[in-house]
Model the fold of this input.
Amino acid sequence: MGVVQGDQMVLNIGPQHPSTHGVLRLKVATDGEIVSDIVPVIGYLHRCFEKHCENSTYEQVIPFTDRCDYIASMNNNFGYVVAMEDLMEIKVPERVEYIRVIMAELNRIASHLLALGVYGLDVGAFTPFLYMFRDRERILDIFELTCGARLLYNYMWVGGVSHDLPVGFVETVYNFLDYFEPKVQEYNDILTYNKIFIERTADVGVLLPEVAISFGVSGPNLRGSGVKWDIRKEEPYSIYERFDFDVPIGQGLVGTTGDCWDRFHVRMLEMIESTKIIRQALKDIPTNGDVHQALPKKIRPPKGSIYRRTESPRGDLGYYIISDGSPQPYRLKMRSPAFTALSVLNEISRGWMLSDVIAVLGSLDIVLGEIDR
Amino acid sequence: MIKYLTTIWETVSTMLTGMGVTWRHMLAIRRDNVTLQYPEERWPRPERDIGFDHNKYNVIRSRLHVDIDDCIGCLKCERACPVDCIKIDTVKVPNRGEDIPNIRHKGITSFGTRKAMVVTRFDIDMTECCYCNLCVYPCPEECIYMTGGPNAEKHDIDYEFSEYDRNDLIYRFAKKVSGEDLENATTKPQGVEG
Done:
């Protein structure tokens, strides 16, 4: 008698499934309840971002970058304008730099709140989701106050920002931070250190640092595996070298380093680091200055190419822009952190149960708008 | 066995901690921080003073509006639009800056510019609009804006504009004139007819 080999069953998860975080289809080969292979099928949200950019002027690209990672639009704008300003050698005013950092970090908190809340939802905890969305709403109100939009901002422009800060903005953000910081403890009480949640996520989907690096995973997913790598520290762009903040890494507090719980916890710690950065920026921001001062009359970068990367809430977000001297980019390539995070899914969830795949997928915090572009 | 019991103990104790948080929320809740009864009540949109000329500069981007009497037909907004949702057609006027009453064309804008064009078509397809605000900035006459923008005094913020028919979402701002009237007004020199 040989070994009894059961038939493999192929199961489709998605594309319309609430826990696939968008329109993602997973072709899961299962043996009983054990997953033996996962093939992510992407492209349901493909909007030809890169080809569109070749046919639009440099200003018109910014609304398109909003729509890639629609949870963290400010950070997408940020990466693009940083690349464009380096290509055109524009020096932006101090006040603009501070505004951008404040906005990017607020957006990072908002994005992490969504990631953590929805992750709770994925593994069966509903209440934290409501609490986190309530607090995310406050950040969106701040954005609405500043630039008039709640999700797709088109706020950062090449050489400046679209609107100056409203009167009373600094107090509003201070109020928010005072409100928000104690809430993190609440989230920890209700979700992070809950034993049921720990049992569900600790030791599950362990992403080893070597695997993470070889797949090109970046951002909180990489830091959850214990690799201290943050573009804001390693290659400071804008004015990040002026701020004092830590890079939290996963230490395997309740399980193995690099498991789902570590990735979750790193995001929780990063929100606290972001509040630190915002507090320092609010303290130092110049009180006046024209935010439109460095806006170029016409955006016509010289011939050449540039690659700049920034730290978006999902990781290493890169823009590669080739200019042929015309008002439209010759080629624009976006390096998306969520794409590499998804590619590692098969590697780390093979051998786990089907319900753990959902937990692993949620902990990677992918945004399909950015994967498909 | 000990591990089993500690797991149970930890589960119960952390669950009680979490439930303590929800209890505190339940007790601290006030009447005014629960669900907003949307169609009856509306969330106040942020109003702000940013120190510009406009007393009440309201940045909220809701629907696009054009003051067509001020439009000079320069096509700058059409070119700025990333999704090409603005369509403009123009016809040259015979005498620059003169009113043409029979097609209700005003010759001079409120900024004092003498118009060289009659705008015969100014369509904005709001189903395509991506609310990026890029068309608003290049306008030399400040006549295209998002309501609730710099001209909050003229228009209330209006974010409820669903329609039963998709075609009703194409906003046609240009004045309706018959082709004959237009031809008469634009080809014949003024004052010679009759």
Notes: Strands of chain A lie at 9-13, 25-31, 34-41, 156-157, 160-161, 304-312, 315-323, 329-335. The CA atoms of residues 123 and 200 of chain A lie 7 Å apart. The first helix of chain A runs from residue 49 to 54. The two ends of chain A are 52 Å apart (CA to CA).
